[in-house]
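Dear Dr. L.,

I hope this message finds you well. Following up on our conversation about the binding site, I have prepared a predicted three-dimensional model of the protein together with zinc ion. For your records, I am including the exact sequence and ligand specification that went into the calculation, followed by the structure tokens. Please feel free to forward this to your student if that is useful.
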Amino acid sequence: MGNEPVLKVAINVPLSRLFDYLPPAGGSCPPPGARVRVPFGRQRQVGLVVAHASGSDLPRDKIRRVLEAPDDAPLLGDDDLWLINFTSDYYHHPVGEVAAAAIPALLRQGRPLNPLLRHVAATDAAHSFDVEALAKKAPRQAELLEMLLDAGGNGVDVESLAEQIPAWRRSFRALAGKALVTEFDLRADDPEPPSRGEAVAGPTLNADQQAAVGTIRAATGFHASILDGVTGSGKTEVYLHLIAEAISAGRQVLVLVPEIGLTPQLVARLRSRLGIEPVLLHSGLTDLERLRSWRQARNGDALLVVGTRSAVFTPLANAGLIIVDEEHDHSFKQQEGLRYSARDLAIARAKHLDIPVVLGSATPTLEMLHHCETGSYAHLSLPRRAGAAQPPAVRTVDLGRTASSEGLSEPLAQAISAHLAESGQVLIYLNRRGFAPTLICSGCGHVAECPRCDSRMTVHAREGRLRCHHCGSARPLDEHCGECSAAMRPLGEGTQRLEDELVRRYPRSRVMRIDSDSTQRKGAMDEALGRATRGEADILVGTQMLSKGHHFPKLTLVGIVNADQGLFGTDFRSDERLAQSIVQVAGRAGRESRIGEVIIQTAFPSHPFWQRLIDGGYAAVARDALDERRAANWPPFSRLALLRSAATRRGDAHEFLEVAATGVNRLAKGGLRVLGPVDAPMARRAGRYRAQLLLQSTDRRLLHAVLRELRPMLEAEPAARKVRWSIDVDPVELF
Ligand code: ADP
Ligand code: ZN
Ligand code: ZN
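The resulting structure of the complex is given below.
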């Protein structure tokens, strides 16, 4: 027994270390990548074996034994374990929590890879039963029986059944009483991988697309390329060619898309053009569906895996290509817990696997453009729209010189009428949901504030409520001012107010609002996008949600209502962000044969930003912004890490960061720039005071070396008990 290995186990607890265990008594020794059930304190936990070691810091008789090893074979291979370790190292996040984030919930809970599922099916007797007669007396029972008869001998698992017929149980009991149905457990072995269907041919690639495909195809091993193509330039066509080639070569492809980029439109296009069923991984799946997709990816049956952020961790038996679509999208960065960038991990993973990675965007981030400048990534550009589509004509409207009502200027209103008259579709963009961003007193100017945040409450007129968009708290609208009793009035515009105004002005047009309020119900978003795509709405009004990747064939006019939000932002990324959101939403206009028009309402039409954007496009803004970053030594010319803390008392939040700052200065010996601690830009949110400490360095190694030592120190720090704290490496939000 003396030469039994010690198992290094990752456990889902917020501690930056592995835990030592001995193999289970009697059983075989679980290999790295397998799960183990272990005693942990007085509880039991499911952990993941990360490595075997010959020794431990503990004496052997103090090391506890694994209770049970549920996996016959490792769940994760060496490459998958590598990614977990890399993520934990790079983001300075406890490895057990990373491992937990990397595997599906059911596996995390210790369920088997192929769980037993409850199934229901029709019995033999049911085949000779008169269903039609039953349908007259008990239509619900007949519906269920019909479905089970169609499903065959294995029947249907109850989870899928419940989705189709929520109240199936009742009918089932009645049918069971007549011995027409039965119930049993079945192992969820994956169905045979679907045979490849017919692939529909696409357009012939134009010269720019061919050049891009050629460059990527010529590369061997790891190769990162930025596919920098204006909206509608045919980036997706390039992906399709690369995917088809990788699959023909017998390799799997992973495509990462933004949270709302995984639309039925995209899935249908992939399916029909490739002749295969893409395997999806996104937040809308049930735990069982997610496990099934994960299993198919892991065993190599899934040729094409398309998923949002966390899909970057999906094990792939035989990966050949990774694609990140809309690489600039912020949903690739997780903003809580394990604060990773799926885009950056995708690149790291491709490098480790020695395969190509393609990052596409019409508005690439400065980080990626900088990699192109230094020659480490290839810059592939698609400067023109594909097919017949022309770039839209863009102009500003000076809000200081034109009359406007409820947020709509006269020139924009006229343009809307003109486009509607020619049966064009119109998109009005305002990145502010609700009716009005502020409720203000007409007498003394007092504004309604959130009691729990340093923030104003948003007016939601339809519900007659004020809502805080930061903490979710809500209360009825105040009719009168608490200070002076004068009447309160909504100030400014939100999407609901614009919707009302558009309905009033264009009574014969169908107005549809798309924002997170209008799309809360499951499936509402897809439904709304479907209607917009089919041209069943004439005027779309909405937030960011509308700006991303959608193809609305009839859309010819985009109106940007309040473009000045962000023009004077304090974040070093504000210009980049503003340009990205304007260019993305503008890119929805005129994607087919009719030329699009984009109108930007601004109170500052002569601001150099607008000149640059209108004359030189995103590339010009990016070039200037990159120069500014270089001069000011902001990323990508330096690296950042942000320590955050939040506490019910402001002093506690600051004290913890003071301790951290002292630790950083000692560890870095003055080699890092330490800014703070300071209050977060929104110092109080949901009743907690928030503070932050920014670390900056041009020396990435030094920054990481410091964080590696700092993290365990902070975990052991008494001041940490009074706060919630986190380390954010490469933060994208500086608050
Ligand atoms: P992106 O992903 O850059 O927005 P898409 O690949 O969706 O662009 O292409 C935009 C439109 O142009 C689509 O309708 C697509 O079918 C069409 N398209 C793409 N490439 C070509 C091409 N080479 N010839 C003709 N049409 C094309
Ligand atoms: Zn007042
Ligand atoms: Zn609030």
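In brief: DSSP finds 21 helices and 31 strands in the chain.

With kind regards,
A. P.
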